[in-house]
Amino acid sequence: xxxxxxxxxxxxxxxxxxxxxxxxxxxxxxxxxxxxxxxxxxxxxxxxxxxxxxxxxxxxxxxxxxxxxxxxxxxxxxxxxxxxxxxxxxxxxxxxxxxxxxxxxxxxxxxxxxxxxxxxxxxxxxxxxxxxxxxxxxxxxxxxxxxxxxxxxxxxxxxxxxxxxxxxxxxxxxxxxxxxxxxxxxxxxxxxxxxxxxxxxxxxxxxxxxxxxxxxxxxxxxxxxxxxxxxxxxxxxxxxxxxxxxxxxxxxxxxxxxxxxxxxxxxxxxxxxxxxxxxxxxxxxxxxxxxxxxxxxxxxxxxxxxxxxxxxxxxxxxxxxxxxxxxxxxxxxxxxxxxxxxxxxxxxxxxxxxxxxxxxxxxxxxxxxxxxxxxxxxxxxxxxxxxxxxxxxxxxxxxxxxxxxxxxxxxxxxxxxxxxxxxxxxxxxxxxxxxxxxxxxxxxx
Length: 445
Ligand code: CAO
What we know:
Blueprint: E1 4-7, E2 17-22, E3 29-30, E4 35-40, E5 45-49, E6 54-59, E7 66-67, E8 72-78, H1 137-141, H2 146-155, H3 173-185, H4 222-237, E9 240-248, H5 250-265, H6 272-286, E10 292-294, E11 301-303, E12 309-311, E13 313-315, E14 318-320, E15 323-324, H7 332-347, E16 361-365, E17 384-388, E18 392-398, E19 403-417, H8 423-438, H9 440-444
Parallel strand pairs: 12-16, 16-17
Antiparallel strand pairs: 1-8, 2-4, 2-7, 3-6, 4-5, 6-8, 9-19, 10-11, 12-15, 13-14, 17-19, 18-19
The structure holds oxidized coenzyme A.
Oxidized coenzyme A (CAO) binds at residues 271-273, 311-314, 319, 339, 343, 364-368, 376, 388, 390-391, 410.
């Protein structure tokens, strides 16, 4: 059987392109449309496919060669016995066609999984242009041959996350394989805590915002990045429910004000948060499942006999959660003193790691800032968090006097992990808190 010369087909607008990959060796058997070599210009990369099935006799190019239309790249002994691979055949398999008659359009890498466009087979005597990738910034960033792109697409890998180890950071097949291995061995948010099933999110679309207006890019602080990952993990791991309630703190606020000067003498600022922490520990004692964590395998509930309460603290660098330890042994003034100490350390970045560890339950108070209600994210592996918003005077109906009274109401938002806590207990917990906060005597007992 005669040997055929395979020439570079029409490569569109490019005078010459560089060979960046030779995909076959003498003796290899190829099917029609199998990629032979990969070439790249400064704007695009493309595979040159086998125009017909056969056995490679000689490879006439090597990586780094500059080639142009008509350049001899391969000699091939055609073989009718070798046919196209079934998965690469679009619609009915085309009959083998002469070398110069084939053109394969490689689709640009889609930003999300998309079906591959059909390969164009032109049974004419004139070479036709080989399609090139669209030259976008994204494509420029991830250099990879069409065959590697195809491989990545099949695995659902977005090449912009893959580090290339080839020349000029080119992404190779092994880079994609290593990336997939690495991703599969990473700890998965959905498996943390309770070993529930797979959870996958769609990749965020990559948008060039400069198309719509002027932009500025500012790096996130270390704290923001850390808390962002933790918040995301907690959000997708724990099925959140938020129970809203309101506590009548009219008497408590009067009491707090009456105690303010005495507290100041001890160098302490007595804020509502100290009372909330005290009330929370009382509620945690009454409802121990709130003072618990799921075991890592999700089979057991670990109940804690200590009461360490974290509080969200807003700092210029982001959110941190210092922990007031052993609250059950402290009075309100002790708690207030701890709050002052820990929040000033947080703002001066002087918190020690142990001062942010060991929390059982967290309070996030936005009362000093404003807002009516919000849905806080649980600080896992804790199972609940109390959000507190700004108190306000409201007309509250009094059954005894059959009249409305102006009362200071404090909005409470309790988010809990529904794997551990049922809705009924959620409502019982906030009712308990409401009762404690409305009656100073009970709170201070
Ligand atoms: N309703 C009305 N007023 C309130 C209030 C409430 N629920 N809570 C606090 N205030 C008042 C205080 O009484 C204080 O007023 P005075 O100075 O007149 O006494 C003022 O607001 C400021 O309080 P504060 O912020 O100094 O003290 P705090 O104990 O209430 O809060 C802290 C301390 C560290 C929790 C708070 O400074 C903070 O950082 N809050 C933000 C927490 C946060 O970001 N949470 C979101 C997490 S989720 O993204």
